Amino acid sequence: MKIKNKILLVESEMLKPQGHFLDYLIETSNFFKNDRKILWFLNKNFNSNNFDLPNFCLIKKIIKSNNFHIKKNRIFYFFEKIFFFIINNFNIFFFIFFFF
Fold it and tell me: What is the pTM of this model?
């Protein structure tokens, strides 16, 4: 029995299944689906809208993104960006070790 290697794909900005974000995930997953176990880390606010995502990928919605917009609340935007950067890095490292 061959043990599959793992590949982790992170997409933090995609909120709905469209465009080059989804294209990147699906094409990479299809290329490696026979050789590796594939994990996706997506934005917590991602809504698949009943789009048929690959069932051979393990999909986790763990990444948070900004609620404030830079044009309206510049100071809050940057503080929130720094906060989410720290939290998201912690989550990613936690799940990397979790899957090992």
Answer: 0.66
